[in-house]
Every structure is written in structure tokens, then in C-alpha cells.
Amino acid sequence: MTPDPRSRHLSCDALRDHLDSGLPMLIPVDGDPLLYWHLEAGGQRPALRIPVPTGTKAPRLGMQDVRAVCVLDGGAQFLHVFTEQADRLREFHIMCCEIADRIQLVPKAAPVPAVQSTVLAWRKLLARKRRMPMEQEVGLFGELLTLVGLAAGRGWHAAVRAWQHPDCTDHDFTVGPYDIEVKTVAGRARVHTVHGLGQLAPHPDRPLWFLSHVLDESDTGRSVLGLVEGIRSTLRVDAPQVADDFDARLHLRLGNDHEIPREHRWSSAGAPLAVPVDEAFPRLTEGILAGLPKVVVARILDVDYRIDVADLVPSVTPSPDGLDHAVDLLRVLPPDVASGLNEPKDDHR
What we know:
Elements: H1 12-21, E1 25-29, E2 35-39, E3 47-52, E4 66-73, E5 76-83, H2 89-104, H3 111-126, H4 134-154, H5 156-162, E6 173-175, E7 178-186, E8 191-195, E9 208-222, H6 224-238, H7 243-254, E10 266-268, E11 273-276, H8 294-297, E12 304-308, H9 329-332
Parallel strand pairs: 7-9
Antiparallel strand pairs: 1-2, 2-3, 3-5, 4-5, 6-7, 8-12, 9-10, 9-11
Helix pairs in contact: 2-3, 4-5, 4-6
């Protein structure tokens, strides 16, 4: 049986144990080319060891706690990507696993560009930003769940390109002949907040589906960061042509001020509910203002309201592309290599 290349990496806990032993060692990262974890005596400077052509210059990475240097060993040249900051080991470990994937998995990247592109992404990720409000975090998780679900039926290319920019379109996804508005809530009640009188207004030329996700906070779930890293790993293997497109759309969702949430871990509390937005759907539209004087309407700046869709029976079945099917993240995505970022740090390590 061929092993899953996405689960081939030494775990961060195992790497930490080797560092704690204080022994120098080379730990292979199987693949082509063969890479190594390079551990110096004393466990002070773990590095990913990458073979490079003679004469290669180490790139400047622009990070204080992660650097690169070229070394000669037995007549061969290697690029070492290393850190001296023990408290950032988990982030460093995940970053090096991504570098290894870019170099060893098809389509393979050359070592220096692979290191530069991965570190650039992590520089942005680790930049100090504000925490995303909980409502937005839960909403982003639901959109990512929807993206994974659509990919199962339509493929990653179509799924990523269906994900829309919130400031440029009315709805979260445009999938061929229909749109999707995704609403996600933490807890057991399917009570969702609708922002504005136009959020649940279908376009004249295509139907709109309302997709309700309910999440539980769970130790066995994934953080938004864990879900993002799983999608990125899958795209590098299955659809590398849209990997950058996914990151661009994710950035539009995050904005410049928010980091990718990593503290809370979420799991689905049952299958999603997919309902067409038709005459029977509970919603408010601009028609409710029709009987008011224009001077009164001009003073109504925002309308937010909450709807309860629990036990709502869809008037159209089945839902397109299996929108109402539960997403099994364990089956469709690689192991959650980012899960360790949610664990409290051990101060005496």
C-alpha cells in the first residue's frame, strides 16, 4: 500500500522529544529529493536540511526567528532553514513541513523558491494582528466547510472560483447556475442573523440557496487555521493551479487587520441545512419599506434581524451538489498539522 504523502511528517511532539535529548542527529524526510531534520548537539537549533546545487546562495527570509544558511558537508551543499526560538517550534515545524511538501510533491518546486514562497506566507500569517470577532470566526469556518463540500462534488477548481469577495458580490458563493448564502452559528439552535434587506434577495437570473451550519466547540475539532492549512495542503497536491487563488480569496475575507483564528476548535453539530430562498422562506425584503414616506426611509440606515430555521423543511429536494451533506474533514483533508498551535506552551521546555 502506498503511504499517504500528506501524513508522512515527523510530528512536532516527536521533534521536540529529539531536541530535548540533546543529541545530534539527522532524521530523514522521505521523498525525492531526500530531506532531513538536522539537529545539533544540545538541541538548540533545529533545521530542515535541503540539498541544493553547488554555488547556491541562501535567501534572505526577512524573519527574526527563522533564517537560512548554506553549508558544505562531504563535498555536497545543503540549505539549512533553522530557528533558535524554542517557543516558536510548532509554527516552525508546520512551516518546514510545507517547505518539504513544495519541494518533494508534484508539482515540485526548486528549493530556494519553495523556501521563499512558504516563508513569505508565514510572515503574513504570524504578523501581529487583531483577533477576529467570534461571529466572523464562526462565519469563516462555515464558508470553508462549504468550500470543502463543494470541492467534493465539483472539484477544487470550481469550488475555489465559486467563493466570492464579500464586498463585491451579494452572496458568498456563485456556483454555476445558482448562489449560496452561508450562515453559521455556534450552539445548538439554528438562529441566524441576517444583515440588511438585500442579503436574502435572489438575483433575477438564478436561484439562491440558504445554507445553515451549526458548530460545537470541541477538542476533537479544528481551528480555522487548522482547516485553512488542511485545504492548502490538499490544493498543493490536487489543484496547485488554484492554491494562490484560494489564498487571495482568504485574504479578502480576513482583511489586513485580522489573523487567522487558531484558539477555538470547531466541529459540525450535525449535517447542514440547505433551503431554497423562495416565497416560503422567512425573510425581510425592501418591500417592507414601500409604504413608508421617503423621508422616513432615508433615516433607516441599517436593518439586521434574526431568523429561526430549525426544522424548516425545504420546498425543493434534493439540494444541488449535496449541500445538505455533512463534511467529513478526517476523510477529505490531511491530518490537522496545525492542531498543536492551540495547545498551551510548556514553559520549562
